[in-house]
């Protein structure tokens, strides 16, 4: 994900809605980033497996899960929708307040976000999005590394900051903190991926 070659310094959601090119964009703190046009096969496989776990768990429950491309507009200062300066497309978003969901995606903060690292997005996911999601109040943020077969799970503490990340490897099982009984087996998530291109 390279910084967008746009002349304007700051962008808002109203600008985002006018972009008609073939690229996918995100805006973080008003800065536009051009995303890779299509994620790798490995990225999609890992994302799909995690999404499947969560989707199956949420059948007949109030919360919903969405996979990218799915716009999440995050207002930080009660700004109007068109003036929002943070529009992201997380790989996976879990939203338990259905009033946040509209025809354009999500207006508000998801309860859980999962991002799958790729060479193009690594810095954004580890830094820019980490601080955005923490400030916005995302309850649980997973950063998944397909190459090292690891997950860093960040849980929002009572002080409204992420606790020290819990580190998991492919032999671990993770209990999703926002739910009482959802456990994801990483051995199944990362199984048989060695021959899939990153």
Automatic annotation (TrEMBL):
<feature type="domain" description="Putative restriction endonuclease">
    <location>
        <begin position="15"/>
        <end position="186"/>
    </location>
</feature>
<dbReference type="InterPro" id="IPR012296">
    <property type="entry name" value="Nuclease_put_TT1808"/>
</dbReference>
<dbReference type="InterPro" id="IPR011335">
    <property type="entry name" value="Restrct_endonuc-II-like"/>
</dbReference>
<dbReference type="Pfam" id="PF05685">
    <property type="entry name" value="Uma2"/>
</dbReference>
<dbReference type="InterPro" id="IPR008538">
    <property type="entry name" value="Uma2"/>
</dbReference>
<protein>
    <recommendedName>
        <fullName>Putative restriction endonuclease domain-containing protein</fullName>
    </recommendedName>
</protein>
């Amino acid at each position: 994900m390279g910084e967008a070659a746009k002349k304007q310094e700051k962008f808002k959601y109203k600008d985002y809605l006018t972009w008609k090119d073939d690229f996918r964009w995100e805006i973080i703190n008003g800065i536009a980033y051009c995303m890779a046009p299509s994620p790798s096969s490995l990225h999609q496989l890992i994302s799909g497996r995690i999404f499947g776990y969560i989707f199956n768990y949420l059948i007949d429950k109030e919360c919903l899960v969405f996979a990218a491309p799915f716009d999440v507009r995050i207002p930080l200062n009660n700004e109007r929708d068109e003036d929002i300066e943070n529009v992201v497309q997380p790989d996976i978003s879990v939203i338990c307040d259905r009033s946040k969901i509209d025809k354009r995606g999500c207006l508000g903060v998801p309860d859980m976000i999962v991002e799958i690292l790729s060479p193009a997005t690594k810095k954004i996911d580890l830094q820019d999005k980490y601080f955005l999601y923490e400030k916005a109040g995302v309850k649980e943020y997973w950063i998944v590394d397909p190459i090292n077969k690891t997950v860093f799970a960040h849980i929002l503490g009572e002080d409204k900051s992420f606790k020290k990340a819990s580190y998991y490897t492919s032999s671990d099982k993770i209990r999703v903190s926002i739910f009482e009984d959802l456990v994801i087996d990483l051995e199944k998530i990362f199984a048989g991926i060695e021959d899939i291109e990153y």
